[in-house]
Amino acid sequence: MEAIDLTAAGDWDGAHQLVMPERSPAACWLHAILHRMEGDLANADYWYGLAGRRRPSVSTDEELEHLRRGA
């Protein structure tokens, strides 16, 4: 997913633009990670819910790696 690569490269805005219109579980998960990275935990929790997930205790870098592997 291109948005994961953009996130890992520090292009938050580019990644956010790509995931905003998407509603797949993976896109919602990445959307949650992006809002978690910016400190907007309420919005992150909303997107985690749409992804069928809860906010984890691991770092966002670890979480991105889990998403990349499809965990």
In brief, what are we looking at here?
The chain contains five helices and no strands.
Description:
The chain is an all-alpha fold and about 70 residues long. The protein has a single domain, classed as Alpha Horseshoe (Serine Threonine Protein Phosphatase 5, Tetratricopeptide repeat). Helices cover about 70% and strands about 0% of the residues. The protein contains 5 helices and no strands. The chain has helices at about 1-10, 10-20, 25-35, 40-50, 60-70. The model has no long low-confidence stretch (mean pLDDT about 95).
Q: What's the main sheet like?
A: none
| Total helical elements | 5
What would the principal axes of the Cα set say about the shape? globular
Proportion of helical residues:
55-70%
Strand composition percent? under 5%
Low-confidence stretches: none
Run of helices and strands? HHHHH
Global Rg: 10 Å
Overall number of strands: 0
